[in-house]
Design a protein that fits this description.
Elements lengths: L12 E6 L2 H12 L3 E5 L2 E4 L7 E6 L21 E4 L3 H11 L2 E2 L8 E5 L5 E5 L9
Parallel strand pairs: 1-4, 5-8
Antiparallel strand pairs: 2-3, 3-4, 6-7, 7-8
Amino acid sequence: MTPRTTPRMTLTAAVLDAPDARELALFYQRLLGWPIDDDEPGWVTLRPPGGGTGLSFQTEKRYERPVWPAAPGEQQMMLHLDIEVDDLGTAGAHAVEAGATLAGHQPQDDVRVYLDPAGHPFCLWIRTGRPAPW
């Protein structure tokens, strides 16, 4: 029997739905400083300057804002982004200036949860010598 091989696969982007793809992409461009790689009606992709996996944004006309923390009967998040930073205070102020909102519930001292303009939670975290928050 011939061993089965896994086909080559490359993760090119994580995709976030939003009521307006371009508006959300511009928020993440301000937050991360990444340039726009693809900009079409209803679809925008940002890529890190050194290459690698990007973030894409897709307009979804029936988009519903997620609720965080999760609540029964409410739209739950499907994913969140973890962004390592050097300083939570400085990075948090930058996130708010870019258009984020600090979430009301903060589960850990070395992690800050923010909501992007479309309501997607994302975490800013600092390395403290223990494993990453995930």
